[in-house]
Design goal:
- By secondary structure, the protein is of the alpha/beta class.
- It has one domain: TIM Barrel (Alpha-Beta Barrel), CATH 3.20.20.80.
- Helices cover 37% and strands 15% of the residues.
- The protein is built from 14 helices and 16 strands.
- It has an 8-stranded parallel beta barrel with strand order 1-2-3-4-5-7-13-14, surrounded by 5 helices. The protein has a two-stranded parallel sheet with strand order 6-8.
- Helix 8 crosses helix 11.
- The radius of gyration is 21 Å and the shape is globular.
- Keywords: Glycosidase, Hydrolase.
- InterPro entries: GH, GH_1_N_CS, Glyco_hydro_1, Glyco_hydro_1_AS.
- It comes from Neobacillus driksii.
- Belongs to the glycosyl hydrolase 1 family.
- This is 6-phospho-beta-glucosidase.
Length: 470
């Protein structure tokens, strides 16, 4: 393969990605209602606190709601071509089932999008990113209730109509497969005995598939030039050995993720899931027309996050050597290093995932999350030398470039957390991802001042050379 083919295409969407609930703050300002994040003070794997008695860093975030102009100016200085963010459902429909949208919420995103456009930064909008209205949880039981499909469609149509002349790229759900691992965060699901109920989880997944298809249909009608993608939390699973049982265990593990992109990209339920439902007495209730809707309204591209890979083993002695990251877990890979939070670092796995997804779907890919969470130190002179972050991102970008050389079509790359924000998994700020440091700690103390890290200028150079200067 000629090295000339290993180039990022013209118009490649370099940028960064965030979620409303992790940086906006202003959690009850201008008519905003409570979201699932607002009642999750200890992160998305912990039980919610509906009494609101515990300190919750999500409530204040990094005050992006009031400082977005300053932050977007810094993104523009880095040369961002795209900025992925989510629209907080509860800013538009505070309770989820409101008859009319909240104008102040709509206006905030109007103003923010206008600011991005002023710098020629393409907005990439996630419709739902771990922040569904608490009202839909309490009054309807979350996504296991079919009525929530209607409320989501209304939300999607409202923002499509409002921003139709400003936003071309959309995603329907963030990391939709996380529903399996964090049902409250991914679907507003609560279980009486605290034990996950697969019947409810997969019923909720079906409702989200239907909602996603309805959003694709509405988006294409309202914004004919729109590109609407799905978004999965992606990783590759390696067999621990060449034992056939390990190979099949790895395949089975990957299917738990690929099921979600299969339905949204191919438009039908794969037979391996039909068999799983049969074997586990899961009965998905569908309405007339659901399957046709899924078939006729598939996504335009595959968005995904990639942070790590995992290993599958059927040998009992390997069960003690397990590791976790981004809500998933598997057997520890002895050939890989890990971050301070135990997330295994595998740049080559990104190339493998890109090839896997493109071979499977033949649709453009958009890497919308990838980054390193670490504890950063501010030196006496005010500098922040995050060479470890530069190394992590450089090696992943190299493998993304190699995937392009393999023939994979990749639209863009938005690193996770271009500015420090509240961690979704632990609701803390000491786990930092950004090119921009925010002077704020996990107790909410600090000046909130923005400081450029060493990686800021490095990423700026990556964008300026379209990935040639690594």
């Amino acid at each position: 393969m000629s090295s000339q083919t290993r180039k990022f295409p013209d118009g490649f969407l370099w940028g960064g990605a965030v979620a409303a609930n992790q940086l906006e703050g202003a959690y009850q300002e201008d008519g905003k209602g409570l979201s699932t994040a607002d009642v999750s003070p200890n992160g998305i794997m912990s039980p919610p606190d509906f009494s609101m008695t515990q300190f919750n860093l999500y409530h204040e975030g990094i005050d992006f709601y009031h400082k977005y102009k300053e932050d977007i100016a810094l993104f523009a200085e880095m040369g961002f071509k795209a900025f992925r963010f989510s629209i907080a459902w509860t800013r538009i429909f505070p309770n989820g089932d409101d008859q009319e949208p909240n104008e102040k919420g709509l206006q905030f995103y109007d103003d923010m999008i206008d600011e991005l456009r002023r710098y020629n930064i393409e907005p990439v909008v996630t419709i739902s990113h771990y922040e569904m209205p608490v009202g839909l949880v309490k009054n309807y039981g979350g996504w296991k209730n079919r009525q929530v499909v209607h409320f989501y469609e209304n939300f999607a149509r409202t923002i499509f109509t409002r921003y139709k002349d400003k936003v071309r790229f959309w995603m329907t759900f963030n990391e939709i497969n996380v529903l399996l691992h964090a049902p409250f965060t991914g679907g507003g699901l609560l279980f009486e005995d605290g034990q996950k109920n697969e019947q409810d989880i997969y019923q909720a997944a079906h409702h989200q598939f239907v909602a996603s298809a309805l959003a694709v249909k509405a988006g294409h009608e309202i914004i004919p030039v729109s590109q609407i993608g799905c978004m999965i939390a992606s990783m590759i699973t390696y067999p621990y050995s060449s034992r056939p049982d390990d190979m099949f265990a790895a395949l089975t593990q990957d299917r738990k993720t690929l099921f979600f992109s299969d339905v949204q990209s191919r438009g039908y339920y794969p037979t391996y899931m039909s068999n799983y439902f049969l074997e586990n007495n899961i009965d998905i209730k569908m309405e007339n027309g659901d399957l046709e809707l899924l078939q006729e309204n598939t996504v335009d591209y595959i968005g995904f996050s990639y942070y790590m890979s995992f290993v599958a083993s059927t040998a009992p002695e390997h069960e003690a050597a397990r590791t976790a990251g981004n809500l998933f877990e598997g057997v520890k890979n002895p050939y890989l290093q890990a971050s301070e939070w135990g997330w295994q670092i595998d740049p080559k796995g990104l190339r493998t995932v890109c090839n896997q997804l493109y071979d499977r779907y033949q649709k453009p890919l958009f890497i919308v999350e990838n980054g390193l969470g670490a504890v950063d130190k501010v030196e006496v002179d005010g500098s922040i030398n995050d060479d470890y972050r530069i190394e992590y991102l450089r090696e992943h970008i190299k493998e993304m470039k190699n995937a392009i050389g393999d023939g994979v079509e990749i639209m863009g790359y938005t690193s996770w957390g271009p500015i420090d924000l509240v961690s979704a998994s632990t609701a803390e700020l000491k786990k930092r991802y950004g090119f921009i440091y925010v002077d704020r700690d996990s107790q909410g103390q600090g000046s909130n001042k923005r400081i450029k890290k060493k990686s800021f200028d490095w990423y700026k150079q990556i964008i300026a050379t379209n990935g040639d200067d690594l």
